[in-house]
Amino acid sequence: MDKIIRIGTRSSDLAMWQANTVAQQLEHFGCETEIVKIDSIGDIVLDKPLYELGVTGVFTKNLDVALLNGKIDIAVHSFKDVPTQLPEGIVQAAVIKRGDFNDVLVMKDGEDFFTEKNAVIATGSLRRKAQWLYRYPNHTIVGLRGNVNSRLQKLEDNDWNGAVFAKIGLKRLKLLPPQEKHIILDWMVPAPAQGAVMVAALDKNKELLEYVKQINHEDTAKCVKIERDFLRVLEGGCTAPIGALALIIKEEVKFKAVLFSPDGSNKMEFSKTVPVDNAWDLGEYGAKFLLERGAKNLMKSIHASNVEKATLIYSTKSLSLDQTNLLDSKIGVGSSDFITIRNNRLKRILVKKPIKNVVFTSQNAVEALLNNFDATELDFENIYCVGRRTKRLIEKRIGKVAHVAKDAEKLATYLVENLEDKNVTFFCGNKRRDELPSILTENAIEVNEVECYKTQLTPRKIDEKYKGILFYSPSGIESYLEENSTSSSVAFCIGETTGAEAKKHFDQVIVSKVSTVESLLKSVNTHFEEVEE
Prior knowledge:
By secondary structure, the chain is α/β, with parallel strands linked by helices. The N and C termini lie far apart (54 Å).
């Protein structure tokens, strides 16, 4: 490659080792490299455990920004620090061969303390903390942050019995203590992708991606993908005690994964061995296996553990970890689903002939239709819809949208003014609103309604301590009001239709600027920031 490849990295000794290793491997293939140091919030804020920072990708965000701004060509990360969802435009370019994945206990004065009832162990990792307490419930865990050298020094300076480290970090920096001063914790399941180094680059830089692919280690990439798929489906991150390890041994993948409660009192485990060729979905399968057996409730309790914060809100739809991390650190959130969507079974004859005009007012209708038919069976001449997210889904899965409107009333008005053929097929749910079919019928447009899904209310009583309630549909409001009063809470609504319904019941209603969860959470941050000021 003709150009010099600028390698972005954090400035810690371990990060520099990783960047230099990548540089050496690239230079082996004949290119020149330059290392660019860029520090992260995870390197700067050292007085809190990672799981208290409330940020996804604390060690990677600044490097992501540098990539997107063109200051570097590739970024080198410790793969276990990388969020499961990469920023738009950034892709995984390579994974270099994995090192030792084990955790080790570095002991201050030997292992005699194991014979005693109490001990003090240091770690900044919630995963290590939970697994240690599960095995040694009488021990005390204290926080430990900083680079490898500073953590070893803190162990010396404090009255602790030991501290837990990744073995690979100590080995790479030649800091692993002698055998009598450390114990390999082979019972502790490592973090997903522990010991692996990932190289990230821009998706649009195809020539660079092809070049960097030369240093990719295929077996390592396969294993860490399985581990990270497990993490992704469970929606875990620094705030969830999740361990996962996949190993390729004699053409088989041996996979083990665990989920703990933060205090180590509960443990869920999955393990399976499959041929390498059949392992592509093993991580996702393992996560779903646990979710069906109680992990969903355990994860919800972990996500909701921050509700002791100053400002409390409640979402009437379950939020992912990445979504809750968009909220200000002072805002605690609880969430659960107040409605359940069930797709109806539709007859094949429905789409046997081409349909000239079809209308969708929700993503649920699109997904319900696709649950019954393959996209190739859907022969629609003109597609009309409500909402840009619905439009994106339709154009990704079915075909071009002729017109999109902000709400059902505006779409109906457009159709009255512009539709030549006075007939539409309206794919909807059992609780669809009346505006669109009423306006069309009043203007002599025939509406063929196809109920393709059912919205079922799942009301539940929540504590009155919440200062804001998040709503995503009029049905969600209906479900909420079955068990709860409007009290003095602020209603945050995802769109104008939901907002209009909320105004019938709540004194204060705030509607997000855009009909997305991200925009709704931004409106929550803005509101409570203004209240505090």
